[in-house]
Amino acid sequence: MSVESNLAAGAWESDYEYCPTLTPAGARMLEKLRSHPCAPQYRNRSGNKLLAGEVEALRAYEQEVMEAAIGWSAAAPPPWLAAFLKATCATVPHYRACGSPPARLQDVAPISRAELAHDIAAFVPDDADLARMINFQTTGTTGHPLLIASHPLVAGRYLAFHKRALRRFGVTLRHGAGQVGVMLLGHQRRCFTYVSVTPTMGESGLAKINLHVDDWRDPDDRARYLDAMAPELIAGDPISFAELLTLPMAHKPAALMSVSMMLLPGMRARLEQRFGCPVLDIYSLNEVGPVAVYDGQAGGHVLLQHRLYVEILDGEGKAVPEGERGEITVTGGFNFCLPLVRYRTGDYASLIHGPRGPVLAGLAGRSPLRYRTDNGAWINNIDITHALKPLAIAVFGVHQHADGAVTLRLAPHAMPQADQARALLAPFFGAITVAVLLAEDKIIQYTSDLREAAV
Description:
Rossmann fold, GMP Synthetase, Chain A, domain 3, twelve-stranded mixed β-sheet, four-stranded mixed β-sheet, 13 helices, 25% strand
């Protein structure tokens, strides 16, 4: 089938850049997502970028993930760990510069987001296929910009771990050709939105939409569009799910999946009651992918990746005894463009080993927060990150006081940008106070004294 004949089926010429294996059925799905009378404004282009051989490789990888057992302990590390450490120290510039491969993982100095942000290239293996590499920038919820090295295969692997998580709750994804499989939600003033298809699921539809009213011709179109597309799985974060709860949507998905931020039990209960389906709380990091899924019967977040080793470290980088709380630190992962060794995630939990495998208990991840503007509206903390993006700052803190006043804290070297920062935040808050962020401060980027700030 030629590109020209596929174009007549509703595809745009650029769709073949983003979806190289696109068929006429896939083209019709893209047209369905884009041309519905209630469709939102899709502001961006994206896609799976997968070649035919990579689609088949993903199917085999998914089977491996679904069948894998995760049963290691600190006393008996997984069998793949030694070879991974040896290969990483030989092929990754950062680790090779540290000298001979260490005899034990514990002899490797932990790293953090700061090292990756400083020079991400030093953590990419020598043999990485640069021609196929994907680089994307993420702000996360911490406000620290970070460039991530990835690959279409790596992006495609997320689905395998999501399917593994869904299986714990009795959900098997079945949507294929002609159906919308996944709808990704955002709720921000500015949000990356696009349509695509999933080749390993018969080119079922995938769309990232923004529930913010500015992206729609009519606010009521949001519910109409979701009902018309009837996605099998809806994924988002607690802020976008809070907005979803306000919509008169009739469609009931097979599951909801919360990623990116901590999902509080109260919100999960509201969602389960409203939509009558399992609501999964996925602990996921852009640097690592889906790490674990919450399972109350297991006592916490059960690990999902069979080639990810987890340690819990104290402030000095030493492993704490089992059951004690510390920083979640990971080695391995499925991103072959960014193999990590003892990467400190900035999140905290204790690690327990039970019949269901390793479990992160009492996980304290990144909590969602919103801010009240001068006119009484609420904005997402990520909107603040976007507003401050023009500033050349590595760290900051934004606090809203009980009276609504806002204080921005900047490191001393960033104080010359204080006036620019005030101007960038003025559309939201009017006048703000800028204070110095002291070196000894343990910074949490987003905080508030307002009870309604936490979703």
